[in-house]
Amino acid sequence: MSLPSSPPNLQLNLQPNLQPIPVTIVTGFLGAGKTTLLRSLVQRRQARRLALLINEFGEATIDGDLVRATSGDAGGQVRIHDFSHGLIAYGDDEHFVPTMLALAARRAQVDHVLIETSGLALPTAVMESLQTPALAAHFILDATLAVVDTPLLLDNRFRRGSGADGAVADMFERQLEYADVVVLNKIDDLNEDLLLDAEHRVRACAPNVRFLELAYKAQLDIRLALGLRLHQPTLQAHQHTYTHVRMPGAEASVLSDQGRLNGHAHSGLGAHSHGVATHRHFHEQDPGWLSFTLRSQSPQPADKLRQAIAEAARSEPILRTKGFVRTLEGKRPQLVQGVRTRVTINTDAANENAETDKSELVFIGYHPSRSKVAALLSELTGTHWK
Ligand SMILES: Nc1nc2c(ncn2[C@@H]2O[C@H](COP(=O)(O)OP(=O)(O)OP(=O)(O)O)[C@@H](O)[C@H]2O)c(=O)[nH]1
């Protein structure tokens, strides 16, 4: 991976003798709940000063705005950097290293860095970059968290198949393969048997995962997410090892007590190591994954639009939809969130003070047809989308 050299003024300010800044990577497939998890961690940050690097697939940056709205930050305690090209720290990303070095130069004001990879990127690119001498002097990987849409996992939506199914399974499995912690999310309606089933499925496809945590609405106790110290510095060796840690609840039998489900963690594995240098990861994006943006100037009938987006996800290989729309019902833009056919449209903290006339939606899928989706939305809403 070629790394751009840092500007001279940054190098002057760097102080490698300070403790390295811990970095947590949040990965997970499209729509799993990564941004929701970050928003909840930002809300529970207490005195921690956080820097967030947020990466999305698609031309519009929506996730960064959602987190900004949550932080409500006047004192600069939370700093957010948007990466909109989908592949943070991959070979042709010229922004990642300079952004990290700029954070290192402000080391005294940063307690923890959180990096959200896009739903179609692997965490290994960031892991590998953190091990280069330029960054290893200033940062240490704390842990890699993979967020899982548990109902979709139980519905076999990440099972290997042909075409889109194969591409989805490939990405899902590879993201989990390098995770230290798997967060089973969206468990609102799942009973203990289903949660055990989900745990077995995760263990089967990612046997190296150290901790499984359960999250309602992607809410995790901040002590189970940050400061885990699962990795050691690796300036010399191009390898990292896990230190042994004890987690609250580690000794408890798994899922034996529903009352302990929210945010409890348990470990099933001893220490192990793997070299990031040996990781196979895509430096090239699978060209089948596409995103496109559709816009409309007309106010939208919210319910019809919701049904139209769900219908588009049924008839085209659309896996994720998000954006802001102006509805007939209200002046404020409404946040649209679609994960496959599950679609919600509502007001969010990010849009409650904004006004807009236009509607803009980002669609992400595997070889989806832009024109078919535009035609479907136009037909089913009775408004023009293009
Ligand atoms: N029911 C339910 N919905 C959830 C939960 N966590 C997140 N969601 C919803 O799932 C949708 C996607 O959540 P995000 O946090 O945007 O997911 P993401 O992984 O950041 O998505 P991408 O960045 O597009 O890959 C949103 O509508 C969330 O409100 C949960 O625990 N339960």
TrEMBL record:
The keyword Nucleotide-binding applies. Keywords: Chaperone, Hydrolase, Nucleotide-binding. It catalyses: GTP + H2O = GDP + phosphate + H(+). It comes from the Bacteria. Residues 289-381 form the CobW C-terminal domain. The keyword Oxidoreductase does not apply. PANTHER family: COBW DOMAIN-CONTAINING PROTEIN (PTHR13748:SF62), COBW-RELATED (PTHR13748). Belongs to the SIMIBI class G3E GTPase family. ZNG1 subfamily. Zinc chaperone that directly transfers zinc cofactor to target proteins, thereby activating them. Zinc is transferred from the CXCC motif in the GTPase domain to the zinc binding site in target proteins in a process requiring GTP hydrolysis. This is Cobalamin biosynthesis protein P47K. It comes from Herbaspirillum hiltneri N3.
